[in-house]
Structure formats: structure tokens, C-alpha cells
Amino acid sequence: MRPQIVLFGDSITAQSFRSGGWGAALADTYTRKADVVVRGYGGYNTRWALFLLNHLFPMGSATPPVATTIFFGANDAALLGRTGERQHVPIEEYRENLRRIVRHLKNCTPTMLIVLITPPPIDELGRLEFARSLYGDKATELPERTNEMAAVYAKQCVELAEELGLPSINLWSKMQKTEGWQKFLRFVILFTSDRVS
């Protein structure tokens, strides 16, 4: 059996094998070396992810993954009092949940490479425009997520990775270094929504 690389996360991970997706690119890179397995769960936060650990990463497995990406936080950072508040996880709990996920994976096999990925930046205007296109006058005037709050969660993710001696990808920071990143996110939102509905 070939080594496995598991991508564990929310809908951003679930959609990573779509045309041009990061999961598809990773699978292409490792075509002859490893199988890339997607374990993405739309709408999930770190609290709900904890319930999946024993099922996805059972203790005593004869063939645990050689590497796993952990890509949660976009839903955890949803704001209280807004439409996505059921997904909200307080920042302290988010950090502790990530720690628990890492601990579980390391208990499965201490040699597993674990990479933490921060939530991406939020194009607030784009999200509002998208909501209006779906719901018209019923759309909320306030975004359910903000870029400012995504930054707080991204910072905690990077700091935890440093504390645990793990590699991390600061997607929140890296994406915003690209000119026109908001337009790219708007395209992704429209592209994925067409296929979800």
C-alpha cells in the first residue's frame, strides 16, 4: 500500500480537488509517491472536527498517514450575533481544539508530518454581494465573517504551530500579498456555489 497524505479540513479542503484546486495540485505532485486523500467537511469547525478523529485516524492503524494538513478556522471565526454564529468557536477553544487534533495525530504515529494552515482572508464586500445575489432583500447587511477576525484566528494558528514545532502556512497573510486577491476569492465563491447548489 502506498503512503497516504490526508487533507483534513472544512469546505475549502472538500473542494480542493476541483479544477485548479490545491488538493489536485498536491495529488499531481505526488502521483508516483503517495495517495492524497481528502477529508473535507463543509461547514465544520474545530469543535465538530474533534468528533471525527477516532473514525478518520484510528489508534493502532497499521497504515497511518505519513502527512496530514489541518485546515480549519474559517468557520470557527464566524461572528456571534450573525447568520453563521452556530459555527463560531471562541478563539481560546479554537487553539485548544487544534492542539487536541495534533495530539491525537501524534499519538497515532509520532513520525507523521503535520502542517497547520490558517484560515484565508475574508473579502467582506464580496461575501455581501454574493449573499445579495442569492437572497436579495432578505440578505443581511452585516457580514457573518470579517477579515479582522480571520486575522485573529490565523495568528493563533501560526503561534500554536511555532509552539508545537510544526510547519504552518499562513494563508491569511500570503493571499493578501497578491494584488487583486479579493477578485480571486469572489471567483472561487461563485465557482463553488454553482456546483454546490
From TrEMBL:
Keyword field contains Hydrolase: yes
Signal peptide boundaries: none
Top-level taxonomy: Eukaryota, Viridiplantae, Streptophyta, Embryophyta, Tracheophyta
SUPFAM superfamilies: SGNH hydrolase (SSF52266)
Family statement drawn from the similarity comment of this UniProt entry: Belongs to the 'GDSL' lipolytic enzyme family.
GO MF term set: hydrolase activity, acting on ester bonds
One Pfam family here: Lipase_GDSL
Record keywords, A-Z: Hydrolase
Protein name: GDSL esterase lipase At5g62930
Natural source organism: Olea europaea subsp. europaea
